[in-house]
Amino acid sequence: MLDLDNRDNTDWAVSAEIQLIAPDGTTAHEFPAQTVTIGSGRSTQLNFSASLTGLKLWTAETPNLYSVIVALKDAKGHEIEAFSTKYGFRHIEQVGKFVHINGKKYSSKEQTDTTPTLFTDVPSTPAPC
């Protein structure tokens, strides 16, 4: 979702283009451009979605980061604004009682100690799994 605000005194015709660049610099996906006219002092949202496959997943050990580049162009095709940001993708799913992140099973066992006369406390050291 891309939020656009027109703070000018005139209507604004703009085209938004978004590219997803893989960690190796190749284009992983290019979203179709969307064109919209935004009235003076108004705002709008553009939605971009795609089913992405073959992504290199992010972990702390393999920090694969993708660049998302957003370019806004006027009615003549001149770039008026552009920015980029980095994203890492993970695959998270529940399999039975467990959570799998990037295909690896994670489990957690929590315990809470309760002392009726004092307070409830979470131990500083986690319980073994």
Overview features:
single chain; 129 residues; mainly beta; Immunoglobulin-like; four-stranded antiparallel β-sheet; three-stranded antiparallel β-sheet; elongated
3D architecture notes:
By secondary structure, this protein is mostly beta strands. It has a domain at 2-91: Sandwich (Immunoglobulin-like). The chain has no helices and 11 strands. It has strands at 2-5, 12-21, 27-38, 43-46, 66-73, 79-87, 92-95, 98-101, 104-106, 113-114, 120-121. The strands form 4 sheets. It has a 4-stranded antiparallel sheet, with no helix packed on it. A hairpin with a 5-residue loop joins strand 10 and strand 11 (120-121). The chain is elongated.
Question: How do the strands of the widest beta sheet line up side by side?
Answer: 3-2-5-6
The name of the CATH superfamily of one domain reads: Immunoglobulins
The CATH class of one domain is: Mainly Beta
Give the helix proportion (percent range).
under 10%
Radius of gyration: 23 Å
Tertiary shape? elongated
Based on the structure, what is the oligomeric state of the protein chains?
A: single chain
Any idea of the CATH topology of one domain?
Immunoglobulin-like
How much strand content do the residues show? over 45%
Uncertain runs are none
Q: Helix count, per DSSP? A: 0
